[in-house]
Design brief:
By secondary structure, this protein is of the alpha/beta class. Helix content is 55%, strand content 13%. The radius of gyration is 27 Å and the shape is globular.
């Protein structure tokens, strides 16, 4: 819920969720550290009093409203600071409650294992996750969700205080015999606790990153990986026999080549296939890691230390994906890497413990892992041989590649796995717009129609290689809004569309919708919306409120051009429904690929007046709406449903 509230302020980027996950993992660590210290340094009744006071204090900080802070250092720090102010203390208290109650349960019932409660708490988390997109999100607007959550939190505090009162009456002091003095053993064991937990979180975040980069950053695609992550905990802590080491070791070994295949060719698979394969890999890795964690769990006297070590691992995993991996790697290599590291960890643990295992595990697995690493490196070198430059940042993975297609040398800007602009390396054709923006496409027809009437003021959300600047004439004004500063840098350094344009060209860095809201009303002749991250769509640019802003920005003879080409999603019913809702005239323009180097380009043109779209240049490229437009879809800032636009 909180991630969705702040998502539009950061351009709908896929990394927003992983930063949010890091925050909640860090607060979870803080909560577990507090619980461990409380158990270690205070007597049981004193523990109850301290925690009751903290519960009452947290009630005054519930998130009735969330406002994004303005911090210039980085989007990561801005998100972390916003979350800390808006939800920090309530979540800190919430996270500490689980280990405390389990430890108090062990005081009250020393002969009963408290670890079943951990499985139950994860079942509660899973219910919350599933409820959000199917019960809460469709029926409660986002601002009301914050109020409902706050009221529910107050109820939680009331129940917790009632439990504390009950325990204060009946709680017995723990006997000395229940305490474990094998500190050396647990000091050694704590390292695998941390490592296995970190691997599970890295797998969770790496899979989520990979999925949302290629599809969309929406709650549904956040929910699926996190649900599988929680299910693995529920199974392992609730039914340990289902976490058989040899079974999941074999399954994870099978996942390694599948993961490598997805790393290079994910966009070639359908969304359903991607969801299944990514989910299967994540579940296998988590079952292997968490099954091993369960087999290493201590008795209840060391319970808080155990959970503390697991939360330290979670924070390490979050830091690795969000900060260390972008610094180390130009690609999202942590996805296949975590599968390899998990198998390597299990192989090392098997050897160190001297476990009696099959020779295939002891000797065959190391050979298999070495072969997989060598194969990946060799294949990746082939994949990167055309790179001029490659880099990744908060907004994604960007590369410039020089390729030869049908004997023609071209330079491409590739975001993730999708080309976001192409330019000929032949000096004679360098200024010719290519790819989705070539002549004969809907956006070119809109530009030509408007330019016939005189100089135009064009605003383009999404820069890419700056291809549309090639259409600029003298006295025209072309303003680009680009979220990712690295895209602006690459467009200026490695492509010449911007520098050679005849028009006055400006590039403003920031979220397109936010920048457009500060632009003059009825002042734009052409508004082109072409913002994608890899093949994913920023949902907040295709909602009822966004289209209303677009309509308010163009003049009476202006045109909105929406680029809707997509490998996995049919955006036709969505944009048709939004146009009807806004009472805008609309036209569908598809330009089929005539050669292998072309892309099929789909554009939708919107205007306040139907006469604008009846001009001969536009009529020449438009065609009847596809049949899917007969079932229009409406998205809003409070609700979007990816399933409604799947191809």
């Amino acid at each position: 819920m909180i991630a969705k509230v702040i998502l539009p302020d950061f351009g709908g980027g896929a990394s927003v969720w992983t930063i949010c996950m890091l925050f909640f993992q860090a607060l979870l660590l803080g909560g577990y550290l507090y619980a461990h210290g409380l158990i270690k340094w205070f007597k049981p009744r004193s523990q109850l009093i301290v925690h009751a006071c903290l519960l009452l204090l947290a009630v005054t900080f519930t998130p009735i409203a969330v406002n994004t802070l303005s911090i210039s250092s980085s989007p990561q720090m801005t998100i972390l600071a916003t979350l800390l102010i808006s939800i920090g203390l309530p979540y800190f208290v919430l996270s500490s409650n689980a280990p405390l109650i389990q430890r108090w349960f062990a005081y009250d019932k020393p002969k009963t294992s408290p670890y079943k409660l951990y499985a139950l708490s994860n079942i509660g988390s899973l219910i919350g996750l599933v409820a959000y997109p199917f019960i809460i999100e469709p029926f409660i607007v986002l601002q009301s969700q914050l109020l409902v959550w706050s009221v529910a939190y107050w109820c939680f505090v009331g129940c917790s205080l009632a439990l504390i009162v009950m325990l204060a009456v009946k709680l017995r002091e723990p006997s000395e015999s229940s305490k474990d003095h094998q500190s050396t053993q647990y000091t050694v064991t704590i390292i695998p606790w941390i490592g296995l937990s970190a691997l599970g979180v890295i797998a969770l975040l790496a899979v989520t990153n990979s999925m949302t980069q290629n599809i969309s950053a929406i709650p549904f695609l956040w929910l699926l990986p996190l649900s599988l992550y929680l299910i693995s905990f529920i199974i392992c802590f609730g039914r340990e026999r289902f976490a058989n080491r040899q079974v999941w070791l074999g399954v994870t070994a099978l996942c390694l080549p599948i993961g490598i295949l997805l790393f290079f060719f994910a966009s070639m698979f359908s969304i359903v296939a991607q969801l299944f394969l990514y989910g299967f890999i994540l579940l296998a890795v988590c079952m292997l890691c968490h099954g091993e964690l369960v087999r290493m769990k201590p008795d209840s006297s060391r319970l808080t230390r155990y959970y503390l070590a697991m939360s330290v691992g979670g924070v390490i995993g979050g830091l690795f994906v969000n900060f260390i991996a972008p610094w180390l790697f130009d690609q999202f290599i942590e996805f296949p890497l975590v599968i390899w590291l998990t198998l390597t960890t299990l192989a090392v643990l098997t050897i160190v413990r001297g476990n009696k295992s099959h020779a295939l595990t002891r000797f065959g697995l190391p050979i298999y892992l070495i072969a997989a690493a060598v194969g990946f490196v060799l294949f990746n070198n082939v994949f990167q041989q055309y790179d001029v430059v490659a880099e990744r940042n908060f907004y994604g993975q960007l590369a410039v590649k020089d390729v030869t297609v049908n004997g023609f040398n071209e330079r491409r800007l590739v975001d993730g796995t999708t080309s976001h602009g192409t330019q000929s390396l032949n000096p004679a054709n360098r200024d010719e717009p290519l790819s989705y923006y070539r002549r004969g496409t809907g956006v070119e027809a809109a530009l030509s129609t408007l330019q016939q009437q005189g100089p135009i003021n064009a605003v383009i959300i999404g820069l890419g290689a700056g291809t549309l600047a090639a259409y600029g004439n003298k006295s025209d004004s072309f303003t680009f809004f680009e979220l990712n500063p690295l895209v602006k840098d690459y467009a200026n350094r490695y492509f010449t569309y911007l520098s050679s344009s005849k028009a006055e060209v400006k590039v403003n860095v920031g979220d397109g919708r936010q920048l457009l809201s500060r632009y003059g009303e009825n002042d734009i002749d052409l508004l082109a919306v072409d913002a994608f991250s890899s093949d994913a769509i920023p949902v907040h640019l295709l909602t009822r409120e966004a289209v209303a802003l677009y309509a308010n920005s163009i003049n009476d003879h202006g045109i909105v051009a929406l680029h809707i080409s997509n490998s996995h999603l049919d955006l036709v019913p969505l944009v048709f429904g939004l146009a009807e809702e806004a009472n805008l005239a609309s036209a569908f323009a598809v330009t089929d690929a005539t050669k292998s180097s072309d892309n099929t380009a789909q554009w939708v043109l919107l205007a306040k007046s139907g006469d604008v779209l009846q001009q001969p240049t536009i009529k020449k490229v438009t065609s009847p709406w596809p049949s899917s437009a007969s079932q229009p879809v409406i998205w809003t800032d409070d609700y979007s449903n990816l399933l409604s636009v799947l191809k």
